[in-house]
Amino acid sequence: MKIRLILLFIISLNCSLEAFAQEEVVEAAQDSVPKKQYYALRFGIDLSMPIIELFNEEEKGLEIVADFRISNKFYIAGEFGYEDHTRQEDHFNFTTNGEYVKLGVNYNTYENWEGMYNQIYIGARYGTSFFDHTLNSYSPNVYGNYFEPELLTPGTEFKSLNAHWLEFVAGLQVETFKNLYLGAMIEFKTMLYTKEPENFKNLYVPGFNNVSVNNFGFGFNYTITYNIPIAKRD
Amino acid sequence: MRNYLVAFILICMVFSACEKDDICLLDTTPNLIIVFKDKDAVETKKSVSSLTVWVQDKDSIIVEQNLDSIAIPMDLNNDLTRYHFANSLSTDDVTFVYSRTDEFVSRSCGYKTLFSNLDIVNPTNNWISSYEIQNTSVENENTTHITFYH
Q: Which of B30, B31, B42 is nearest to B83 (CA)?
């Protein structure tokens, strides 16, 4: 037993020494061959939106995502999309449709091998959206049931609204085939400014999703993206 | 650090199904507040004995109670509500007319109906001798809207 432990110790020591030696070799190699650095443009779409659309006909949307590698750590990243979203609340039903753009940076915490652009990242975005609401139906809310309110279908349109917000994001990008990446990202959003409609409220904003009572939002996406290495940097 | 981040992302995705974040408790369509006062001493409240209140073809909303003020709903599908007020001796017929506007409250409460230009038409005077409209707009239940003297 004792001998086995000692042997194990020696072997492991040996391994670590070997690793140490390998590192030296790698460093030497890096010294002799100048490191190639690429900018890389990666773009693709959010897969979650078409999937949701398959199961729910009242949801339509598309999100195009892109990021641009400026260094090992930093990527410029953005999303662009449109949404047509209908929501049923307790006492009313409305449709929101509009476009949105988000732009920001990702900070990559994952150490890649040469030539790979996998990511585990955190980042920030500035987002803005231009949208309309349509109030499809509502029934006035009344306490008690002595008079039952009728369901009204005014179809009132609230046009030319906009919103501006900040996002904190975290996500992954994993190369599954050569230059093809699968990604997932979560988004925490906080509203900076919205142009509110008269006699209604921006309860849903494209790109921001549901606006909570304290003006927070939450979102996620699952992306498939294609990577194009563009320019060499010396 | 990296593992925590991955775990954090996964947990957030699992719990991303959102709970409702507000519940409607207050601030829905207001009731009409009616106060009953003494016709001989107009400043003092006077209870109605055995008050019953109902709308034609509907159940009574108040049944044989001794009250000096009531809160009753108005028909939010029409611009008038015809109420019957009965005390222990007789019945009076009062028709309230008004205009309606629907005001947005919140996600959970939706819209509430507010009433304005409140008026009374063709009241009978069997036991209610007169009335006074204190407030022509019914936007909340904090003030008296109508006073009945009897």
A: B31
